Amino acid sequence: MIDRVRPAFDLVMSNTYVAAGLIVVAAFVASVVLDAVVTRLSRVVTRRTTTTFDDRLVEILHQPIRSTVFLFGLGVAVGHLGLGSTPTRLTIGALEIIVLVTWTVFAVRLIGLAVGSMAATPQVTFVVPRTEPLLTNVARILVFTAAIYAFFLILGIQPTAWLASAGVVGLALGFAAQDTLSNLFAGIFILADAPYKLGDMIQLDGGDR
């Protein structure tokens, strides 16, 4: 039986376009199957918890898993077509950028979900409704910075020199705006420590209350 099937399989795979199409179909099936397996296993774990964080995490994890597996299959199919080094590199680079955007969106949604969940948990004292926007924005800035760095790497651009230049510029701006930065960080610490709350009476050095 295997001896009869093998020549037919070799004949089909010898056709570049047919083989690429089969790879795309296999990648789509693999993405659906893997997503179903991960979802099934995750739901087994989430049933044992009382929080909704893990349930919502499973909900936002569907798209990245499916997209990554399917786009990986597309990349393999493009490489199998033999379009040439430049078209293949450009196409695979575009697919990598799509994967990067997909996981960046997932990371941004995960940050909002995680910080919101911690803010709603009384045991977590450093994340409260007044500091939630600050922590969310800082975490998202870090995610976007890492995504931009990965984007440059995909394009084949080494951002090391740019990072060094940005560090020098940031150091110069830091020295030039010391008072502004000190007030900014003081405001952040006030938000985090919460030494004052609504209803407190504060007397300034000039005697104003």
What is the element layout, followed by pairings?
Layout: H1 2-14, H2 16-46, H3 53-81, H4 85-119, H5 132-154, H6 160-176, H7 178-193
Helix pairs in contact: 2-3, 3-4, 4-5
Write up this protein:
This protein has 209 residues and is mainly alpha-helical. Helices cover 78% and strands 0% of the residues. The chain is built from seven helices and no strands. The chain has helices spanning 2-14, 16-46, 53-81, 85-119, 132-154, 160-176, 178-193. Helix 2 (16-46) packs antiparallel against helix 3 (53-81) and helix 3 runs antiparallel to helix 4. The protein is flat, with a radius of gyration of 26 Å.
Helix coverage percent: over 70%
Task: Catalogue the unreliable spans.
Answer: none
Q: Work out the strand percent.
A: under 5%
CA-to-CA gap between the ends?
A: 93 Å
User: Helices and strands: which structural class?
Assistant: mainly alpha
* SSE succession: HHHHHHH
Anisotropy-based shape = flat
Task: State mean pLDDT (0 to 100 scale).
Answer: 77
From the alpha carbons, calculate the radius of gyration and give it in angstroms. Answer: 26 Å
What's the total count of β strands? 0
Largest beta-sheet characterization: none
Number of helices: 7
